[in-house]
Amino acid sequence: MAESMQADKDILSKLFELNRLVAEAGEALDALPQLVNLIREILIFDNLVIYLAEKDKLIPYFARAVGRGRAKEADVAWGAEVARRIYKADKTIVKRESLEDTGENRLLLRYYLGVPLKQSGRKIGALILIRFGGPEYNVSQIRLAEFVAEQLSHLVEREQLILKVNALERGRQLGKMQEDFVATISHDLRTPLGFIKGYTTTLLRKDVEWDKETYREFLEIIDDEADRLRILIDNFLDSSRLQSGTLHMQFQNIRLATVLKDVVERVKIIGFDLVVDLHSDCSEMVINGTPARLAQVFDNLLDNANKYAPKSTVTVQLKKTDGKAHVIVRDTGPGIGEDHLEKIFHRFYRVPGSEVGTRGSGLGLFICRQIIEAHHGEIFAESVLGEGTTFHIYLPIVS
Ligand code: ATP
Ligand code: MG
Which ligand ends up closest to the CA of 367? Predict the structure, then answer.
């Protein structure tokens, strides 16, 4: 009598322990191995399987063979059929299965105990315990299994709630990002559009006669602003396509030196000294890429130098470093503070203060990095305040 009271007390303290572990558990799948070990101290079984319902189909969520029957045959006895019956009937089921010629092989005599898993009265799956060769489950063991099933249901319920909350949070963040994106776009598009509208309305005024020079000057402003608007729209489209992975890039084997030379040719009328140093042994260097997109990267770096490091000396270099094509764009401008060096590659990021007197939407370097990464390369910046900024680009060489 005293012995059985002691055994009951032991079981009770293990049930408390189980309850505590479930309450404190993080991710269900991480917690389950420890829980199974504890459950085995309360209930004898060889295999334990948790099935969860997905669109009314039962999918094994967790399975563990712990008993003496850790043989091949044991591995195939996961009680899927019993689980389906329990789920359908929505009640605990005990089943004895004796396969042909049981003989000495206890693995062929299987005792199943299956309990439905529920969340607030709604069935969500089934817990199956399997014993090979017996003994049969008695009433108190069935009650214990039902208690265990209840605890496991809590564990799974919490995990599913966390997943739902995370999905909602991701959705909320996405919505917020889209809102910010639209707000930034509208703001940036308004500026050039405002100029175009303002100067056009002015020119169209019937009560004023504009001289030829003013007329031309206003038209040039409209022309510049229309160009600016086109660049902005292209950048917005590129950045959202790059982000969603829908920007199509046609890769081909190209000479990187040729792309660089073309870009440098185009940016002749600029406000800085340009030094170009394309290593002669790099002139034949071939990489796999899209000339137009790579040109866009170099264009933005030179445009930035023009805007943020005016009147400085800008060096464009191409060499081979560690077996990779290495492009360096260095200026002797004001530089970028350490805290901002990584952030300048983020969408819409502009170093505070640099927006005064310059126009831009902080998309250029974000697009550059996405393009370079699509080429399996890397781009980063180094800078010393007051001395200048250096951008490094590494790209894999084909030959
Ligand atoms: P956009 O390129 O979209 O027209 P942007 O030039 O402001 O706008 P990025 O090219 O992404 O955007 O550059 C991000 C920020 O990094 C700039 O706003 C500027 O603050 C800083 N920056 C970029 N290049 C330099 C540079 N060479 N020297 C100093 N600051 C720089
Ligand atoms: Mg830029």
Answer: 1
Which CATH number goes with the domain that contains 131? Answer: 3.30.450.40
Query: Quick one: 126 and 20 in the same domain?
Result: yes
Residue nearest to atom 16 of ligand 1 (CA): 344
pLDDT tens by residue, 206-233: 998 889 999 999 999 999 999 999 999 9
Q: Assign residue 213 the CATH number of its domain.
A: 1.10.287.130
Q: Is residue 292 part of a domain?
A: yes
Residue written as tokens 């790059």? 242
Find where tokens 């809590």 sit.
Answer: 154
389 lines ligand 1 (CB under 6 A): yes
Distance CA 19, CA 372 (A): 52
Burial (0-12, 13-18, 19+ Cβ within 10 Å), 382: middle
Sheet with 273-278, strands from edge to edge, namely 273-278, 313-321, 324-330, 388-396, 378-384
Domain limit, last residue, from 167, 198, 223: 167
Mutate to test the pocket of ligand 1, among 304, 348, 351 (most ligand atoms within 8 A of CB): 304
3-state secondary structure of 319: strand
* 107 pocket-lining for ligand 1 (C-beta < 6 Å): no
Residue 331 Cβ < 6 Å to ligand 1: yes
d(CA 340, CA 262): 30
What would the pLDDT profile of 227-286 be if each residue is shown by its tens digit?
999 999 998 889 888 888 888 888 999 999 999 999 988 876 566 788 888 887 888 999
- pTM for this one? 0.62
Classify 205 as helix, strand or coil.
Answer: coil
Co-location of 307 and 330 in the same domain: yes
Residue 347 token pair:
């969408």
Place of tokens 């169209």: 204
**Probe ligand 1: pick from 344, 370, 372, 380, max atoms within 8 Å of CB?**
344
Q: How far apart are CA 385 and CA 331, in angstroms?
A: 12
